[in-house]
Give the backbone structure.
Amino acid sequence: MRNNDVRIVDALQRFAVELPSWGFANTGTRFGKFLQPAAAVTIEEKFSDAGHVHALTGACPTLALHVLWDVPDGAGGAAEIDRLSALYGVRAGSINPNLFQDQQYKFGSFGNPEAAVRAAARQHVVDSIALARALRCRDVSLWFADGSNYPGTANIRQRRAWFVENLRASHAALGPDQRLLVEYKPFEPAFYHTDIADWGMALLLARAAGPQARVLVDTGHHYLSQNVEQIVAWLLAEGLLGGFHFNDRRYADDDLTLGSIDPYQVFRIFHEIQLFEHETGGPADIAYMIDQSHNLKGKIEAMIQTVAMAQALYAKAALVDYDRLLRAQRQADLVRAEECLQDAFATDVRPAIRDWRAARGLPADPLEAFREGGYLQKITAARATRAASPSSYA
Ligand code: LRH
Ligand code: MN
């Protein structure tokens, strides 16, 4: 078996994680939003902050955009995004239509009983696909708040049929190299039924939509007792795993920083993926993305912490001794098999990661470098004068 450091360097070389533009903005809960003077409001500020995190970590070259929050002019805003990408050194990543905040979506978007509202939602997705093409972005990532709050108020099978129809129409608008990512969520904001509530529904809808559709796993979108890595293993086996929204949670969709509550959970997910790659002999075609809202932590610090944690957990998962593990599994040697994962997880990969950074001219400790670098003071002064962002979320 190759030594750990070689495996860690290989893992870091192939690992990149996408940042969410909305993670840099002031966000809150229904009980309030605590404003940070340095929080980003404009798309330029979001690119600037993401560019700074990428400059410090070398591991997050793309920024996820939420269309109505970041590029309200759609494809017409592509040139400005290209300018900002060149200026700040991060490219636009996944394109996320907003199908939940407009008043017309009170009773749903793709699942809305009103044909005109379904048509408007479909048009927004088609426009978002056109924006993605204009930006040479591969993934259009769909999350629907659609559902109901009370039994009997929604025709669940009728809505499912509308989702199939509208996802097929969306798929038909894709370019040959583009993908549609279908994200599921069991509840919130709907509290009786959600139209795409779990991985099985997302899988069946992705399959019905067409060959370029995949399932997106948001780690926070599961009941507490669900085995997320088993879902990941099944989606890999079905060839329908498209990507992740990583975050952490103690209770529900808390959107806390990755690995802050259960780092072993993310390690187990990375293990299932890397074992799949080991057994199939090739890289799984997965988009690793962050989806968090930093309501209390400093937004940029939380992002740097998240990228570093993701790198460390991905590197640890690369240290599992597959020959030993697969032999132990075949022999039902439970303890030896379990030890293979626990040994890898217990390995301190930080020295090797520091060396990997130093070898690339990156700061050995990006968080410390950020704290001492003066960027926060600079943007706090520059952004302090303007009014806080009007928008409800990001
Ligand atoms: C929904 C979600 C979705 C995004 C939003 C910001 O909970 O996970 O991925 O659109 O958060
Ligand atoms: Mn998400």
